[in-house]
Specification:
Layout: E1 3-9, E2 16-21, E3 28-33, E4 37-44, E5 49-54
Antiparallel strand pairs: 1-4, 2-3, 4-5
Length: 55
């Protein structure tokens, strides 16, 4: 299966709302990116998976 791996990194001192559109499927994803955290999200033909990592 082909897909994309998105990496979001917050360098802010406050939480941030993130909204992206997957170019392959046209689906829109949105989430709250917590301050000083990172999120890895694999998007493809199936349901997306995310994993939060504390830096």
């Amino acid at each position: 299966m082909e897909g994309y791996l998105y990496t979001f990194v917050s360098e802010y001192a406050v939480d941030s709302h993130v909204k992206i559109k997957d170019p392959a499927t046209g689906k829109v994803y949105q989430f709250m990116l917590e301050k000083e955290r990172s999120v890895l999200s694999a998007l493809g033909e199936k349901t997306p998976t995310s994993r939060n990592e504390k830096e």
